[in-house]
User: Fold this.
Amino acid sequence: MDIEIQKSPKSAPRKEFWVLNIAGWAILGLINIVFQTDYLSNNFIAIAYSVVITLVGIGMSLFLRMLILKLKLVERKFLRAITQLLGISLATSFVSVLIFSAVIEFTLVPGPFSWDRLIGNTFNFSLTFLVWAFIYVSFLFFEQQQNLAAQKLRLSLQLKDAELNILRKQLSPHFLFNALNNIRAQILIDPEAARTAILDVSDLLRYALNYQKKKNVTVDEEMEIVQAYINLNKTHLGEKVQFEIDIAQDLGQLNIPPMSIQLLVENAIKHGALISGGLVSVSVQETPDHKLIEVINPGVLKANKNEGIGLNNLKKRLSEMYKNSVEFSLSSAANTVKAQIKIS
Assistant:
């Protein structure tokens, strides 16, 4: 089963980032031009200032983005992320002001260096970069949550597919091989019995291949396929194993996971009756407290039999259908193994 692992964001900005980042700084620059020039009526040197600010902002926002990704702020705890966000926004603002001051004072308006002006401009710029960083981190967090939700859904579907593949393989090749060999032997001896056995095999295969489309089936539907499975085993086992079925009439429409009783019957034959022979009984009855599905077979329960993939999968499917209203148990006493499903 292939599971896709979510990768970290790519280092190169996407096209959408470039468009939104440049557009945002350009709009900020235009607003600054309009107000600094008193609606383009005077102080035209402010146009050059605004252009430099816009270009420096675009470049330094790329640097700020790199720091956010490098520090993985979106993965950190809230208080630590906020603290680091404030720190890198202030640092980015300080570097931006240094670059801005160098360009302005060495090219456009030469003048003496002023620490007061540098510090003041740094705090003014830091608010802009802090807002930019907050928006970008929020976008990264939202994108991460979307990716995690999609990944969780894909993983859930992959696990479901894996479970269904396990269940589709419930009818072992060894069982089918024996069934086909028995049918081949019957064709000349008892053609009618061979024809019936072929129909049973066909029904079993159709059910096993198609039941994954359903979350549940009725007891009546399940017992049709159980009866087909029993018929094929009777042909193979002869008189070594007997079967007894007792289904309460009013429980025929009870919903159960597909191939649940079939799995219990298969285990009863494979791990009990096939070894020591005897009676396998299948019962679906109602008690004052619950509805009881029970499969009993001769044999002894081994310690690891309760840990089989098929039984664990059945318990999981029962839990998904009935939540806390179902109980599965497997017990052994007096050379008898009993599998029970109790539905409240």
